[in-house]
Amino acid sequence: MADVAAEAHVSVKTVSRVVNHEPGVRPDTAERVRAVIERLGFRRHDGARLMRQGRTFTIALVVEDLANPFYSQVGAAVEREARIRQHQLITASAEGSPSRERAVIEALVNRRVDGIVVVPADESASSDAVLEASHTPIVYMDRPVRGTPRDTILSDNHGGIRSAVEHLVAHGHRNIAFYGDDPAFWTARQRRDAFVATHEGLGLPGSPRVSMGPHSSGSVQETLVPWSRGPEPITAVITGNNRITLAVLLALREQRLPLSLVGFDDFELAALIDPPVTVVHQDPAAMGQKAAQQLFARLLGDESPAQTVVMPTRLIVRASGLRRAALNR
Amino acid sequence: MADVAAEAHVSVKTVSRVVNHEPGVRPDTAERVRAVIERLGFRRHDGARLMRQGRTFTIALVVEDLANPFYSQVGAAVEREARIRQHQLITASAEGSPSRERAVIEALVNRRVDGIVVVPADESASSDAVLEASHTPIVYMDRPVRGTPRDTILSDNHGGIRSAVEHLVAHGHRNIAFYGDDPAFWTARQRRDAFVATHEGLGLPGSPRVSMGPHSSGSVQETLVPWSRGPEPITAVITGNNRITLAVLLALREQRLPLSLVGFDDFELAALIDPPVTVVHQDPAAMGQKAAQQLFARLLGDESPAQTVVMPTRLIVRASGLRRAALNR
DNA sequence: CGGTGGTCAGACAACGCTGTCATGCCGGCA
DNA sequence: TGCCGGCATGACAGCGTTGTCTGACCACCG
Questions:
Q1: Annotated domain spans of chain A
Q2: Which of A21, A30, B67, B149 has its CA 20 to 30 A from that of A247?
Q3: Could you tell me the CA-to-CA distances from B306 to B68, B115, B119, B245, B294 in Å, in that order?
Q4: Does B272 touch chain A if contact means CB atoms closer than 8 Å?
Q5: pLDDT digits (tens, 9 = 90+) for B149-205
Q6: CB distance from A254 to chain B under 8 Å?
Q7: pLDDT tens across B283-309, in order?
Q8: Under CATH, which number does the domain A2-44 receive?
């Protein structure tokens, strides 16, 4: 900038004014400065600019694994909201490790990002003190965190599972099993509890048959086979997420069991699988958008108490939820 | 930092030394400073630090759409490489628009990111001048760009298509159609040309039947039906990417045509579709990793001429490539 | 003709840190 | 005792901007 100023016989401040389209520069002066800028290939150094202004126009997204479709859709939505507001997005993976997540968040705070969206690795609020001290706004997604109340965007796990159970029951199923992921995950427990509660609420016979993961096709079969052959055989399965749905599909295929299936989480090409899989759809893009919007509201000075938003889910009915019902007719 | 210095009765420089674990500070002084840092909740401002040092320890990834599984896998790999090297990753979407891409890249250069990985929207090298002037290293991925030679990481489109054709021919197919994406895409043209070349190289009968997109299930059927019913009916189809594979699958299903199929691009659950889809697998994670590694080599001072790396593809044989061959036996 | 107000431009400090150089102190040695 | 070298520490400038304040100049008005 100093070079430009010297070359154009003006002060750096005037160059600054021209670069930032500030008023109060005579058109011919501005034109002369612009010409020099062009000739010298000058570009404003945003790092210095932002440092001066105390804001970075940068937000961050911390997830477990960017390659996971759920997170990548969230990422795309958050990036979009950021771009619209002239912010940039730093994405970081914590790979599911709370300590790494802590390190990542501290690094982001050190960079003075304006705000952070996090899908927390666990519920321990491990970076609470740092965030508190730095006043960095944060929005949690998908899973809540203990400690200071924070803005949190969740999926309606309970409603989603309930709609799955009700759908199956409406099609004549009475004996339904639930396969969930590792109960270390908050969402896995939520969905399991929702299943049990709905099972009891609807007065389905026997005690709920629940198997929690981590699951592989093999581990699924260990319970799937006895449950579908014993007394009161199950005629349908509900799965707690994507990964489990896959494991169950493989197990069903291997055992040639024509059970109904409703999976939590939609996935690409669910419609093309045989049979097309009925799913509880949650909308990662909408969740990410909502999270980013909430974050930007905070950046604009919204001081209202932290709020938790529960995003609705939607049952997408495809053939897999109907199969056995057809046989029962 | 000044606050800490005052409180600890030392100079800011000493605080800086402690924060950065520089030698030459007496242990008791360091301890005193650390205590104050702790008490005051001081955190080093990395923005200022990096500005002083002239590097940002940040790289950027520019893609079309972060939600696309291909790009999100690339993103995860690049982020991983960045994290390993203590860098952060800014991700940005250009949504396929060259002008937006240009704007995005200029913004990144203004931020003085240390380097950029780009999946370019077109071949126009629209930001060449900016990059040249700023000396920002850049690595292109998936598609080459005209102009100044740059490091470029590509998939072996030709080899991939050839392996697909050869696979089908080995299973007795002679009449094979190719469905490609919009020829505006470099990769779409590459794969089409590879198909035509292989078709001729192997001396398959007639002229190659090729239909370029953009495609929907409907547009595919317009050619699929005549080609599979006319004289010399096709018995197999090769698709130019993911999206087209999906369209063809739907078309085949709708028309109840039991043709063989080999798709370019693997996709989640390809194994669970009926029939399981044989694909030419390209490895986005490996490509992203390679691109990042190349970028970091440049950052470390590698001045060798720009190089183009072609990453191998791998044919994953599943049932869809064999179906008609079985009927032919 | 002096005062007033507006327009354009520049000087300067500051954002928070670190590289460079200077300083003070101490022990050891001739 | 005087000198030297090494260690711990500090003063200062500068990274590239921008906010604030000041100043020069001109036109207009009473």
A1: 2-44, 55-155+284-311, 157-281
A2: B67
A3: 28, 15, 17, 34, 10
A4: yes
A5: 999 999 999 999 999 999 999 999 999 999 999 999 999 999 999 999 999 999 999
A6: no
A7: 999 999 999 999 999 999 999 999 999
A8: 1.10.260.40
